[in-house]
Amino acid sequence: MPTALITGPTSGIGNAFARRLAADGWDLVLVARDSARLDRVAAELRARSGVEVETFPADLSADAARAAVVERILDETRPIDLLVNNAGMAGPGAVLRSDYRAQDDVLAVMVRAVLQLSHAALQVMAARGHGGIVNVSSVAGFVPRGTYSAAKAYVTNFTESLAEEARGTGVRVVVTCPGFTRTEFHARSGADTDNIPDFLWLSADKVVDDALDALRRGRVVTVPGLQWKVITAAAKHLPVRRIVRATRMLGRTPRSEIGTRTEHTR
Fold first, then answer.
1. Separation of alpha carbons 188 and 69, rounded Å
2. How confident is the model at residue 166 (pLDDT cuts 50, 70, 90)?
């Protein structure tokens, strides 16, 4: 059986990846901070799909934890065939109103972890001549709004570069850039989403289907949902200040919630 390693699999898009891949017969390695929740998800997946599920508790904001996950990826006695970099956390808000550690944690989880895990996976997969890497970014990466958006912009740009490097090795690389997705991410981060129209929302399953389809077809960057394809295309032609002003009206986060940590990106 092929094996997929998924970071942030206990809810949202990460959980949708775990459910979909388990249903397709993939064995799983699940990486998350909350070990109790991780064990519950693993037990559910084993019972439902009959696949092997290895749990790997790790806080990816810590150097030692990221290094341990890298060692698991490099273990060729238990090869990883697909890496899904999904784990993350809510943005800490404006630099002026947050402490440095909160800003740095975003970079550790959503930039350094993506770099370290992708680097390790590409090395071993290219040597084998096959494999896949899926990085979960966001349409936020197309908008200049603080460290969270900057981290997502890195993920998108980095993945495009990685895909070019992987060309001809047998390793496929894709980055998915979803818009608002119905998960617990927004509630846990304290974002006010009441003013977001229904037509803008995606389901986590839709995001996963789109990402895996892109991986199969060899597309590198995918924006799931026609509505978000149109929005991101239009945004490229608008002045930056107008884009920033418009996004401030959506998904606002109360000041009292700034810096809240969450387990997953979406």
1. 25
2. very high
Query: 226: alpha, beta or left, given left = phi > 0 and alpha = psi -120 to 50?
Result: alpha
Cα–Cα distance measured from residue 92 to residue 189, given in angstroms and rounded to the nearest whole number: 9
User: Would residue 148 show up in a list of annotated catalytic residues for this protein?
Assistant: yes
Angle at 118 between CA 92 and CA 228, to 5 degrees: 55
Distance (Å, whole) CA 41 – CA 45: 6
- Residue 12 CB contacts under 8 Å (≥ 6 apart), including other chains: 181, 183, 184, 185, 204, 264, 265, 266
- The packing angle between helices 63-74 and 113-128, to 10°, is 10
3-state helix, strand, coil in the chain (%, to 5): 50, 15, 35
First to last CA, the chain: 28
Q: Which of 148, 154, 158, 185 is catalytic?
A: 148
Residue 254 and residue 190: Cα distance in Å, rounded? 7
Quick one: which of 32, 25, 20, 42 has its CA closest to 210?
A: 20
CB 178 within 8 A of CB 13: yes
The structure's pTM equals: 0.86
Give Cα 226 distance to the centre of its chain: 20
Residue with structure tokens 């808000």? 93
Which residues make beta-bridge pairs with 136? 176
Confidence of residue 263 (pLDDT cuts 50, 70, 90): very low
Question: CA nearest 266: which of 197, 196, 207, 200?
Answer: 207
- Fill in the amino acid letter for 204: A
Contact in structure between 231 and 240 (CB atoms under 8 Å)? no
